[in-house]
Each structure stands twice: as C-alpha cells, then as structure tokens.
Write a structure and sequence with these properties.
Elements lengths: L3 H6 L2 H5 L3 H8 L3 H20 L13 E13 L2 E12 L4 E3 L2 H7 L6 H12 L3 H11 L4 H21 L6 E11 L2 E10 L4 E8 L5 H13 L8 E5 L3 H11 L3 E5 L1 H9 L4 H15 L4 H18 L1 H8 L2 H4 L1 H4 L3 H8 L3 H14 L8 H18 L9 H24 L1
Parallel strand pairs: 4-7, 7-8
Antiparallel strand pairs: 1-2, 2-3, 4-5, 5-6
Helix pairs in contact: 3-6, 4-5, 4-8, 6-7, 8-19, 9-10, 11-12, 11-14, 12-13, 13-14, 18-19
Length: about 425
C-alpha cells in the first residue's frame, strides 16, 4: 500500500517508474469515468437499431425496440465494473438481439503499459479531453459522440436527482454555497436518522438570496422532506440563508450557526498579531461541553473585544446564542464534531472541487447543474456516516422537546 505522504512528495516521473499494479491502483478511482464511456458505447449501438431516446423516427422501420436492462459487467484493467446492459427486442425474429459492442468489451484485453501510461499522464495533467479521445478511438467512437452521450446521461442524472423522493427521516440539514467561476451554487446536504449524508438539492443563487433558497427548501418538502417533529439546520452567517429557513420551516427549525465561521469572522477584524490568540480563546470557549460555561466564556471574550475592536465584539455578539445550540440542547458530547460547524458540507464541496476542477470553461447554467449534480451523486457513494450516528435518537428527542417548548411559549404569548 502506498502512503499518501509518499505520493504527495513525488513527481509524475515517479509514477511512471512504478509497477503496473501500483498504477492500476491509482487509476481505480477513475473507474466511474470508464463506466460512463462504456454506457456511451452501449447506448450508441442501441440507438443504431432502436433509434435515439424520445425520438419518433425509428431505424429499420421500427423492427427493433428497447426492452429494459440486464445486469452485466466489463473488465477495466484488473477491475470488474458492473454495468446495466440495454436490451433490444427484434420483433421480426421475436427474440432479443445481443449487443456486439458489449461482447467486444467483455473480451477486451487489459490495457498495455503504453496505453496505461497515456491514460495516467492525461489524468495527471487534467487533460481529460485527450484521454477521452484516446479511449473513444480505441473503441471506435468519435469524441463528439462521447460528448453527446455524456450530456444526455448527465441530463438524465440531473432529472432523476431533482425528482427523487426524500423518504428517509432526516434529523439535520446543512446549507452552504459553492463558488463556481463567479457564480454560487447553494447546496443542501441532509443527514438521516441512520447517520447517512445525502445531497438533497442545489440552486444557482447567492446565500443572500432568501427567496431563491426558500424555493429550494419548499421543493425538498414537496419531494417528501418531513420536519414536523423538528429539524436541526446548520448554516454559516448568511442572512439570506437564515431568513429562508424561517420562511419555510418556521419554529420547527432549530438553527446551529457554524462556530468555525463565527470564529473566523470575529478574528478577521483584528490585527494579524492578535488573531491567533483570539482564535484559540474562541475555540477554547466553543469546546466547553456545558452551555452556561461556554456562554460565560464567550461573554468574557466579548468584553475584551469591546476594548480592542468594537466591530469584532459586535460580530461575536451577533448570533452568539445560535452558535451554542448544540451545547444548549445537551448534545455537545456526541455531536460537537459533526454538527457544530458546516464541516460536513464543506467536505462535500471539497469533493466537488476535485470533480469540477477539470472543466476549462463554464458555458451555461445547464452545464453547471449537470456537473454539480453528477459530482454530488458520485461523492454521495463515498461519504461516511456522521460521528456517533448510533446516538442520533438523542438528537431527535431533544429536537422534539425544543419544538414542544416553543409551541407552549407561542400559545402563552397569544393568550396574553
């Protein structure tokens, strides 16, 4: 096994000197790209016989028709990759027609050393276009066909993502923005009661645009998101985000402001030589398990900052109570790591950055949505459960108690 520290320190020439199994191991993370290419090859052959999807004109006077899928697999290097193999029904012969390309792919020999080096070089230099061209030529396809097929498949993934039902019970939502070439994509990540992290939605807007984000959240509710028993919503300091949460979820949303963002906002007002000191002080206060102790410590820091820098003090005071939600609910011991900051969704954004960094030019909104959604669905497969997920029942109980207390207060205020 190759340690990350070794790979991080070596150059590309080191990789080419490694044995085949090491190269194959490093290439294995790109198997999904190869799977998309295989799907494109199979779809092209199906289209030759049964016509393109959603088009009325059929080749061979409609002799052939699509007939669902069968599970199958192809071998890419030393890896066996599962794929869904399209079925074609021959109405004239009254039987299914086998796909020649699929049979050829199954018998395809493993890539030789020369071809593997070429693929690795292309991936390492982020020159995906040359890699796709090399692969498409080896399968007898044009690179434009691969491009068209990818657009179609990514469009289908986008449609499926936007329509999939949210049938799981969600205990928390993380909402944050991802900057993409001058435009922001606001992403919602959900955490189920089983601890699974699931990307739920995305919209092209800024975190200050409350109406757009509210529309995104209402869309989640239409797809089945339940929040009647309370839901924890973790956000940074964006005013638009906060307003949208209030508009859609009302008193059923329990908001946790990201402690990391608050800390960094506060110290940004201070001179550089004081930033590390107050960063440590704030972190120490937020690490306290008991709500009262943490708040007392923060108020003490607030008093210090009033003398040093009024803006820093005001920044700390603004939304301070919501930065302590996890402590106030008595959940700090188990869930401080996962729910006191937006780290969960920041990790998703980091994974998205790896998928999207190879796009040289963003041409339109549709492209942004397709790539972001495909990246999120790919990242979803690899995301781990939140820490201490087996204790999430405690969070559900605390949220239910919080919502009950709020409703009692609302009734009392109305009666008064």
């Amino acid at each position: 096994m190759i340690k990350n520290s070794v790979i991080n320190r070596e150059k590309l020439e080191w990789l080419f000197d490694q044995p085949f199994d090491v190269k194959a191991m490093l290439l294995s993370q790109h198997l999904e790209i190869c799977k998309l290419l295989v799907n494109s090859i199979l779809e092209e052959e199906v289209g030759q016989y049964a016509g393109r999807r959603y088009e009325r004109d059929r080749p061979y006077e409609g002799r052939y028709s699509r007939y669902g899928y069968n599970p199958g697999s192809v071998k890419i290097g030393s890896e066996k990759v599962r794929v869904d193999v399209p079925r074609i029904y021959d109405k004239e012969l009254e039987k299914h027609k086998s796909l020649e390309h699929y049979e050829a792919l199954r018998e395809l020999p493993a890539q030789g050393e020369k071809e593997l080096q070429a693929v690795l070089h292309g991936l390492s230099t982020r020159d995906y276009s040359s890699v796709m061209q090399m692969l498409s030529e080896s399968f007898g396809m044009s690179s434009s066909s691969v491009s068209r097929s990818f657009i179609q498949q990514s469009s289908e993934k986008l449609e499926a993502f936007e329509k999939r039902k949210l049938e799981e019970d969600y205990v928390a939502l993380f909402i944050d923005g991802k900057s993409l070439s001058g435009q922001q994509m606001v992403i919602v990540l959900g955490v189920t009661e089983k601890g699974d992290k699931v990307p739920l939605g995305v919209i092209q807007a800024t975190t200050e645009n409350a109406n757009s984000i509210a529309e995104l959240l209402r869309g989640l509710i239409d797809r089945g998101l339940s929040f009647e028993e309370g839901i924890l919503v973790v956000i940074d300091g964006g005013k638009g985000l906060r307003k949208a949460v209030d508009q859609v979820f009302g008193h059923k949303a329990v908001v946790q402001r990201c402690q990391w963002h608050k800390r960094e906002n506060v110290v940004s007002y201070l001179p550089e030589h004081q930033q590390d000191l107050y960063r440590k002080k704030l972190q120490s206060a937020y690490s306290l398990q008991e709500y009262e102790k943490a708040k007392v410590r923060l108020m003490k820091i607030h008093q210090e900052l009033k003398t040093l820098n009024r803006s820093a003090a005001n920044s700390l005071e603004e939304g301070m109570e919501e930065t302590l939600t996890i402590q106030r609910l008595g959940l700090h011991f188990h869930f401080n790591r996962s729910f006191s900051t937006t780290n969960c969704i920041e990790n998703l954004n980091s994974q998205l950055g790896k998928y999207l960094r190879n796009v040289k030019r963003w041409v339109n909104s549709d492209q942004r949505y397709r790539w972001v959604v495909c990246g999120m669905m790919e990242a979803e497969i690899k995301m781990r459960k939140v820490s201490n997920y087996k204790m999430l029942y405690q969070m559900k109980e605390r949220l239910l108690e919080e919502i009950h207390d709020r409703e009692v207060c609302l009734k009392q205020s109305k009666a008064a």
